[in-house]
Design goal:
This protein is mainly α. The chain has helices at about 1-10, 15-20, 25-40, 45-55, 60-70, 75-90, 95-100, 110-120, 125-130.
Amino acid sequence: MRELHYRALNDRHGSVLRMLSNQGNPSARIARVLQKLSGNLAGKYSVDQLAKEIGMSSSAFYRAFRSTTGETPVQYLKKLRLNHARSLILYEGKRANEAATLVGYESLSQFSRDFKVHFGTTTAKARESIAR
């Protein structure tokens, strides 16, 4: 039986079998969530909703997410949003309020606070440093 599994997984279609066998793996499920978050930063998400979408309880999802990424779902999404907003501001010339809206922040003041905590500088100073 082991020989049969080995041969099946190593033939020309083995990659498809390996992918299918990993579909139920918690890391594979979390990877689907990470793709979803990256694909739509401005979306509104809740841990309960994300967990339900991949067939996990909220507590199991939270543990698996933290185990996979090293961060909570909220921390991870905030980091993604801030990094993308920074890129929009520095390299695409977007204003802070526009970048904040594009990545899903509803409050410019909250965005500004989070940006300063995460990057150690304001959006204006970050833009100035890149202009030099």
